[in-house]
Design a protein that fits this description.
By secondary structure, this protein is α+β, with helices and mostly antiparallel strands. Helix content is about 25%, strand content about 30%. The protein contains 9 helices and 17 strands.
Amino acid sequence: MQLLKLCTFVLLLLTLTTCELFKMKVKPPNGCSLESLQDLKISNLSGRVLATPPSNKVSVLFQVRENNASGKPVPNLQETDFSIWEKGEGDNCFDEKTSNAETNKKIVLNPQRFKFSTMLVLDLSKSITSAYLEDLKTAATSFVEKVMPEAGSTSFTMGIWWFDGSAQIKQLVNFSSNRTELTSAIGRITAQISSDGSTNLNGAVIQSATIANLRVAEFTKQEIIAGAAVVYFTDGRDEASRNSKPDALNAINSAQNVSQDRIRFLSLGIGNETNLQDLKDFGLDGFLPASDKSQLETKFLEIGKLVSDEAYSYYILEYCSGKRNGKVEVSLVANYNTGGKKSKTLRGTLSGLTYSAIGFQDLCK
């Protein structure tokens, strides 16, 4: 089932322009209009439509989020949740390309174009290893299984780092698409892993934000659209005082600015000594406290869902265009049913996309 999901959805990261919370109109020359719906925010990740003649295959890379105060990612949409509208140079109005027989419309996975990396950053100071170690290992294993596809994919990778009071964070396992490699590394954690009883939380935030930023930048240089999520787990506040909280927040903000807001930061705290305000500030995109170890696995799974939803809210929609000449304008409409007792359908439009159909031949697959 997860393999099927993996082949259905594609990741990428985020965000471009802010949408207005009101409806606008796209008005072709003869007055017919295509309504621009704003319940959903659809961000064009590449800034353009990908079309390379002579193939008539057209690709659009985008992310879908709710266009409200929550800005929640919208994961796991299907081909049937999208409609494609095109208007060529000789057309008066937009034509809806809803027939799969006509367009061969597909949501596809292309590991060469997209990479999503998750960093799990664990506090393994003595206060953790003496009180929560086995529960932490169980919860972290569940987190890996929640986020990582069972079959593995080079589009999805995770790495695990840990910290105590030392100056440098330590790598438990580098970025890997192998779920077994990740869970085995967690299983090997022992109470003797840490030699420093203090907590260098601010330093861990700074260093992990830097690693995530470099990871995204590396893929960007290769013209691969990439994003990341950094998840912190700790039971306390910064005690080592090696770095200040403002420095840690600056590292997060810098990483988001450089990556064009394609890195998500989440945090999970446990115990009574946790500085909740610090973890809320570091977990810009999600913070969950666990009052005791009995809640640990549940909270880890909640954080895992946030990461998974973010990852699966990125899509590449490909279709076969019937155009064979001239400039073509494309609009994409998405539909999302929220489900639940107060179920409603949210809709959004991505408009203003264009490509040239000059040289197109019927080569699309």
